[in-house]
Amino acid sequence: MSSRGGSRVAGSDGRDYQHRERVADHYVISATNKWRLRCVLYLHFSLLVMMLLRLSTSIFVGVGVRPPRLLQRMQFPRAQVWEYYWLLSVLPAVVGFLALRRSKPIMIQQYFLGTLIFGVLPALYGIFDQCDDMILYWRTKEATVKFRGFPMVVLWNMFLAVILQVHGFGLGFAWALWTAWTTRGSKKSR
C-alpha cells in the first residue's frame, strides 16, 4: 500500500519490516522449480520429436506403410532397441506436466520413477552399447555407420549426453518439488 504522506509512514525510519509476513519457503521453492521443470519438459519433448523423426522410417516400415519420399531420401541408419524404449519416456513427461498443474507429490514421484526407468536406463544402455564402437572410432577415426558423412556413433553419443543432462536436471527439479510439496505445512523445530 502506498501512504499519502510519502514513501514511508510518518514516524517510521523503514526498519520496521521484521514483523511483516513473508512467503513461506516451500512456496518459493515450488514456484521456482515448477518453472524450471516446465522448461526441462519442453526440452524433453523437443528431443522426443527429433527421435520420432529419426525413427519415423522404421516405424512406417514396421506398420506396413511406405515411408514418404523425403524420409526415404534421408537414409537414416537402422534403429536401435534403446531408441524405441526411450520413446516411452513421453509417458512420465506427460505425468510431469500434469503434476505441475496440480502440485501433487504422488504424480511427481511417478514422473521421477518413470524418467529413471524409461529415460535414464535406456540412455545408459545406449551409451554402453555404443562404447566399443566409440573406442574403435577414437583409435582409428573410422566409423562403420555414417549419416551424411558424419560418424553415427559420435552423433548417438552426443544425443545421449544431451538426454542424460536433460533427465538429470529434470530429476533434480522433481526432487526439489517433491520435498517442497511433502513438507508443506509441517512445523520447523527450532
Automatic annotation (TrEMBL):
Protein family according to the UniProt entry: Belongs to the jagunal family.
Keyword Transit peptide annotated: no
Ranges that cross the membrane: 40-64, 84-100, 112-128, 154-181
Leader peptide range in chain numbering: none
Organism, as annotated: Ridgeia piscesae (Tubeworm)
GO biological process: endoplasmic reticulum organization; vesicle-mediated transport
InterPro entries: Jagunal
PANTHER family associated with the record: PROTEIN JAGUNAL HOMOLOG 1 (PTHR20955)
Top-level taxon of the source organism: Eukaryota
Record localization: Endoplasmic reticulum membrane
Keywords per UniProt: Endoplasmic reticulum, Membrane, Transmembrane, Transmembrane helix
Record's protein name: Uncharacterized protein
Top-level taxonomy: Eukaryota, Metazoa, Spiralia, Lophotrochozoa, Annelida
Bilayer topology: Multi-pass membrane protein
Keyword Transmembrane: yes
GO CC annotation: endoplasmic reticulum membrane
Pfam families (UniProt xref): Jagunal
Main location: endoplasmic reticulum
